[in-house]
Design goal:
Outer membrane efflux proteins (OEP); transmembrane beta strand; 5 strands; elongated; alpha+beta; 472 residues
């Protein structure tokens, strides 16, 4: 008898071992020793062990700081992501309840009359009361790991939703910072265009005076008028673009566009140095990579859930209570109990349904693995793109500032020559157009440098520096 029990126990252990999910290890992605596009101005000291802080403070803009704080309070997109995480946590709790037995309590009261012509009634009817109070307990023994793997999968999904919440938060923060610097770039262009309109108005008045004095031709007046009108049209276009960007910021912070405004301001557009850190730290910093890895862990656990269906379901039962037609209900003579049933059910034929479920679970795991690899590759590409853009835009900005300065000197010389009668107004028009284009291009490049810094911080997964500020 003991030998038979030992054999049964050994067989159950073996079956349980083959029914569990495959051993899971987080994927070991090989990261390069350094970013190819990293220049000497980047830092290679990762601080991924530090808590993520308010990375936007590195830009030193109080208005941006205030806008970023509003995201936490009022962004509907962030609120939806938080709700998804709360749902996932609730699902973990629900899956964990299968670890415990299910207990039910019920009661009933009835008055019945039995037929006198029923079998064995001997022609006598019967009328009686029936009162009952009972409870049942049911418990599924988790011999094959179905419950354990279900809880593991739910917990991994919840951790994935937590990473998704962090990813949504970082995306909103970066989108807000990007829109804000676009706004400030447009403010700088608007200020330049207002100065240009004022200068063109003076040039137009000068040309009109010279025309009235017989010195300048009507063509010179028309050219000056054309430049002035074009500058005014460009100013209106910039105002239109600014309004659209401002409305977009309102939506990001959960405000109604009609009652939201950001005062115009002209300020230096100087991006901070962004420490790229070591490439290996990127896998820990990026919340989307963390989410992809957790989805893969959940898919692996669900393989175990699908495989457990090949083995019997073992259920333990217990019932008891009180039943009486008269007298005290809650008394020993009225009590009853039943231990069991101890049931086991094994599906012998299902047309291949369980095998298909296992194949589906394995395919989902392969899909999650591919998604993880895609997330890693996309992360490294975005960082390399950001580093390359930051370096090339820095060089371009310097060259463009030189070009704008040279164009401004050419404009001054052209106006002087025109006043002295050494040239016609066409030379002034060409110089003024080139100067305005060069200065606007310089402002656009500076704006792109700010936006590139934001995109690079986002690609790196946010700031992990102490105090919430990026350190160079």
């Amino acid at each position: 008898m003991r030998a038979a029990r030992a054999a049964i126990l050994l067989a159950a252990t073996a079956l349980a071992g083959c029914a569990t999910a495959p051993d899971y290890q987080p994927p070991a992605s090989v990261a390069p020793a350094a970013y190819r596009e990293a220049g000497p101005w980047t830092s290679a000291t990762p601080m991924d062990g530090m808590p993520r802080g308010a990375w936007w403070r590195a830009f030193g803009d109080p208005v941006l700081d205030d806008l970023e704080s509003r995201i936490e309070r009022a962004s509907p997109t962030l609120a939806a992501a938080l709700a998804r995480y709360d749902q996932a946590v609730a699902l973990v709790r629900r899956a964990g309840t299968d670890y415990y037995p299910e207990v039910n309590v019920g009661g009933a009261a009835s008055r019945e009359r039995l037929s006198g012509r029923r079998p064995l009634a001997q022609g006598r009817s019967a009328t009686f009361n029936d009162f009952s109070l009972d409870g049942t307990l049911s418990y599924e023994a988790d011999l094959w790991g179905r419950v354990r793997n279900s809880v593991r999968a739910a917990r991994a999904d919840a951790e994935g939703d937590a990473a998704d919440l962090a990813s949504v938060r970082l995306s909103l923060q970066a989108s807000l910072a990007d829109a804000y610097f676009r706004l400030r770039g447009l403010d700088a262009q608007a200020a330049l265009l207002r100065q240009t309109v004022a200068a063109y108005e003076r040039a137009y008045d000068l040309t009109l005076t010279r025309h009235d004095g017989g010195i300048a031709s009507g063509m010179d007046v028309s050219r000056a008028r054309t430049l002035l009108s074009n500058a005014r049209a460009d100013l209106s276009q910039v105002a239109n673009e600014r309004a659209a960007v401002e409305h977009g910021i309102a939506a990001l912070v959960g405000e109604v566009a009609s009652s939201f405004s950001i005062p115009a301001a002209v300020q230096p557009l100087a991006p901070p140095d962004v420490p790229a850190g070591a490439p290996s730290a990127l896998l820990q910093r990026r919340p989307d990579i963390a989410e992809a890895e957790r989805r893969m862990a959940a898919a692996n656990a669900r393989i175990g859930v699908a495989r457990s269906a090949f083995f019997p379901t073992v259920t333990l039962g217990l019932a008891g209570g009180f039943e009486a037609a008269s007298g005290s209900l809650l008394s020993t003579p009225a009590s009853y109990w039943a231990l069991g049933p101890l049931s086991a059910m094994l599906n012998l034929f299902d047309g291949g349904r369980r095998r298909a479920e296992v194949q589906n679970a394995r395919a989902l795991f392969e899909e999650a693995s591919a998604d993880y690899r895609a997330a890693v590759l996309a992360a490294f590409r975005e960082v390399e793109d950001g580093l390359a853009s930051a370096r090339h835009l820095a060089t371009q900005a310097k060259d463009q500032r030189d070009a704008a300065a040279a164009a401004a000197r050419t404009e001054d010389l052209a106006l002087t020559r025109y006043r002295d009668g050494a040239s016609d107004y066409l030379e002034v028009v060409i110089a003024q157009t080139a100067s305005l284009d060069a200065q606007r291009t310089s402002l656009i490049i500076q704006t792109e440098r700010m936006r590139t810094a934001v995109a690079l911080i986002r690609a790196l997964g946010g700031d992990y520096g102490a105090g919430g500020a990026l350190s160079g």
